[in-house]
Amino acid sequence: MLKKISYAVGALALLFGLWGVYIRLFEGEQSANYGSYIGWGLWVAMYLFLAGLAAGAYMLAAFDYLFNVPQFKGTGKTMLWAALVTLPAGLVSIGLDLGHIDRIWKVYLQPNFTSFLALMVWGYTLFLILILISLYLAFTKPEQRVMKIVMWIGFIMAILVAGGVGFLLGGNASRLYWHVGLLPVQFPVFALASGAGLMLLIVGWFMPSLEEKQRGDLLWMLAIITIATSVVKLYFVVADYTQSLYGGATDNLIAVQYVLTGPHKFMFWGVQIILGILIPVLVLAQPKLAKNGFVAGLMGVFLLIGYAAARILIVVPGQVAEMMPGQVEAFHGPKLTLAYSPSLMEWSVTSAVMGFALLGILVGMDYLLGYLARFTEAKK
Predict the structure, then answer these.
(1) Which residues contact 144 (CB under 8 A, 6 or more apart)?
(2) Are 45 and 316 in contact (CB under 8 A)?
(3) How many CB atoms lie within 10 A of CB 129?
(4) In a domain, 339, yes or no
(5) CB burial string 55-92: b at 16+ within 10 A, e below
């Protein structure tokens, strides 16, 4: 029943999103609420979220094929597939934000390797290739040394592409809210945490065929990972915000107050903190509840919603401070504002991307992975 509901949710999200994708492709960005002052909005945040999911899913696949953790045995293919679906979904989200996707070939044939954005494109491309190779070897040579070598390279690449996003934001010295030395360190932790949330959802709701004891032990281990990463994430947030408030730098104060008491305060306190951290930690700290498939999957949903909200609260607040005094009063226009909330078209596009990712994971688990297993076995 849960899988049927998930299929329906994914299909409806994709159908609703097709309208927004059509508007974006044929009418441009006129219906978007981001503009000249706040140039990065919902789509950039969802790119961070989905790319982090892919990195986290690959890290957890390594628990099966690289580290041979018994509780993760038999889950590696599913997590590699999840990474293969969520990474392109994230790249679609950022591609629709950037526009002119037809020029992507220039990054490969005319690259400027002094540009960190160009390095990120190459990094994601290599990571995607490594995911494909890892998935192929998982079916054909899972026990051989070549699988270990590829998984080690992919594991390191997952950390690098996750941390690279933090470097991309933190390297912007004019945005003090992002200009934090530990930001590239935080993002791999965020990736592992979101990957654990996704795996709680997948194992809890969509993998009932796992042996009962292994499934319970795996859910409990994922609960421990979730609690540990949630505590670390909360520490990062408290450290960043208290340091900003204590330091008193104007741009930082504006950004932090925007999060804590401004237009997105409910997203922070209600969604990120209560729904995305406190409730899952309190529930998953109880072994009986953590080993219940329905409860664990539900906590996975809560965690993923909280992580998505957290990405929005990283991207948008960093842009709400004026770059020069009097900037807002000097210029006026529909795209010349420091106030931002996503438009219906932006939500629609994000709905399409999320619907695609959800359906992609489900279809892969139900049909493609089984077909590939039978195909490779027949070739042997």
Answers:
(1) 137
(2) yes
(3) 12
(4) no
(5) bbbbbbbbbbbbeeeebbeebbbbbbbbbbbbbbbbbb
Work out the burial of residue 284: count CB atoms within 10 Å of its CB; fewer than 13 is exposed, 13-18 middle, 19 or more buried. buried
Token readout for 217 is 């032990």
Give the orientation angle of helix 145-170 with respect to helix 116-140, to 10 degrees.
160
User: Given this model, what pLDDT does residue 324 score?
Assistant: 80
Nearest-angstrom CA–CA distance, 51 and 93: 10
Tally of helices (H runs) and strands (E runs) in the chain: 16, 0
What type of residue is 265?
K
CB burial readout 19-44, b (16+ within 10 A) else e: ebbebbeeeebeebbbbebbebbbbb
Task: Tell the residue number behind the tokens 């954005």, with chain if given.
Answer: 117
377 three-class SS: helix
* Residue 328 belongs to some domain of the structure: no
The rounded distance, in Å, linking the Cα atoms of 141 and 181 is: 41
Distant-in-sequence, close-in-space partners of 283: CB < 8 Å, separation ≥ 6:
289, 290, 295, 299
3-class DSSP state of 74? coil
d(CA 192, CA 226): 9
The whole-number pLDDT of residue 142 equals: 86
Q: DSSP of 146-183, one letter per residue?
A: HHHHHHHHHHHHHHHHHHHHHHHHHT-TT-TTT--TTH
Does residue 9 fall inside a structural domain? no
Task: State the residue for tokens 């903190």.
Answer: 273
Can you give the CATH number for the domain in which 163 is found?
1.20.1630.10
Residue 266's domain comprises 40-320+351-375
Q: What CA–CA distance (Å, rounded) separates 46 from 88?
A: 12
Q: What six digits make up the tokens of 167?
A: 């470097």
- Going by C-alpha positions, the residue among 273, 356, 347 that lies closest to residue 313 is 273
Mean pLDDT of successive 10-residue segments in the chain (380 residues)?
A: 93 96 91 88 96 97 95 95 97 90 87 88 96 95 91 97 90 82 89 97 91 94 97 93 88 92 94 97 96 96 97 93 80 82 95 97 92 76
Q: Structure tokens of 262?
A: 């401004």
Task: Check: CB of residue 172 under 8 Å from CB of residue 178.
Answer: yes
CA–CA dist 21, 44 (Å, integer):
15
- Per-residue pLDDT, 380: 63
In the chain, how many domains are there? 1
Q: Classify residue 47: in a domain, yes or no.
A: yes
